[in-house]
Amino acid sequence: MTQPPGQQPPQGGFGAPYDPPQGTPPPEPGYGYPPQQPGPYTQQPGPYGQQPGQYPQQPGPYTQPQQPGPYGQQQPGPYTQPPQPGPYPQQSGYGYPPQPPTVPAPAAGGPGGGGRFKGRTGVVIGAVLAVLLAAGGIWLATGDDGGGTKKPVAGPSGDGKNGKKPTGSPTSKEKESFAKPTAAELNAGRKPGEAKVAWLQESGVDLPQYGEETHGPWFAGDIIAKGMYRKVTGYAVADGAERWSLRLPTDICAAPTAPTADGKVVVGIEDNVSESEASCSVLQMIDLRTGKAGWKKTVNRSDLTDGLSHVAMSISGNTVTFGRNTASNAFRVSDGKELFGKREGVCQPYAFTGGARMIAAVSCQAQPADPVRQQVQEVDPVTGAPKWTYELKAGWSVAHVYSVSPLVVSIKQPEKWAVLVLGDDGTYRSQMAGGDEEYAVRCGEESVDMGGNLDGCAGVAADAGRFYLATLPLPGGAEKRLTNKVVAFDLATGTSAWKAPAPEGQIMMPLRMDPGKVVVHVQAEYRTPGAIGTLDPSSGTFATVLKHPASAAETESSLYLPKVVYRDGRSYLLPQRISADKDEEEMASTAVLVFGE
Q: What is the pTM of this model?
């Protein structure tokens, strides 16, 4: 592929060149346009170029077998979205609403190149780490990687019979065995230079057989809150004292990554308690500062395809979105007023990011039998109107958005993955070229169309010039313990700038940017404590910021794929999921663990 002047093709990595759509795509025959003729706008063969890695995604509590995209199986083919400016003049009367101009991709493909992008998104890391977490409420099953090879995959514990947990009252010894050390007990063994356990909180919730996901953490003033099952709880940031607890009538089924700036969140809950008939269709606003429930609203999901869809939620400004495959709705957080809903035409957004910019994943399909085409849009959070549109090549779909500023987007095909950088106006900038590494991003699900949210992935960070991505943990060092690296990519070229190894025998995940530093979490192992550190953006040099105490390593490592927040000199850890065989063990499980000086 021809490279822009002065650039060399990256070697190896995420894959062959991005080869984005050439110029402005032609409209599809059959909507009032003449049949497509060969010419400068004919789509050229060649995917974004990513190939499957040697560590395929395994089934587990956060992953599931590859499913078709939100509107059916994606097939290569011409665009089915509204005709775009170009050699084919816009025709009216085909059901398309007025749209802003679509940003065309670069005429010559753009930077990138080299070998294959072998990374897989989702919780690839979960299947690997489950081996180390077997003692923490996780069993190991055997999964097929598609090539006849059986590999261990993580799943929740429980006997699996009749949907119930094992029965029988625990003995006094069993009750004692479920008790966890207190913060004071953990701090008693703290060594000089180590942080202390500021506080911890038990789950305190009796969960269904296979446990439940946690939602949050959400911060609001001096409150940190989490949601799980049918309860949202607020704790004092300072000492972990429970400030309030709000019981919900049904299960929490969806929630945004972050609340509003003034401490309000809207969660999705099911409309009834039936395991077979419940629908994730009720929205409940909660003031996290007080724990008071606000407005409540039911979204109509009676359409069959809507009822089968996953839900993705986000909060941007004063807008909460409730995204589904065939329709999405947005409401004002303060009072519940609906701001926008399903669009006219064949292109529907199905997931949005929260935070400073509302980026939408959009799917286009005129008829159920038609191929699906996907777009990335920036939309107005009040009106839902697109500000610009970037169109993906045929067969590719939006998986996640890793950063909104700069805009870094994960896209996928079955067994393929690519990471794109778009400009503030939606123009293509670059594609990451990952060399010979495997990559692991913790997003809850492999793709937003399988569940979870469009944003909120761990293992990624970005600043104005670079994108930082964690590699897949592999055995290394003298003891062959799992360890990994963080790789920095130049946003302008997509090439690797440096690779920073994690401390020996541990796994390191980027969390966010702090002015001038990449904040990372070093994950604890059974006898090795975790830490918060930073990487120098120019060199990758690692420095420890907060060393967790070795006396708490067992407790810390028991948290399943922890969600980690570092703020104001403290690290806050929540397990992604809590599950155990016995009710008492489940209730005694650590739900929030906080370290600080």
A: 0.76
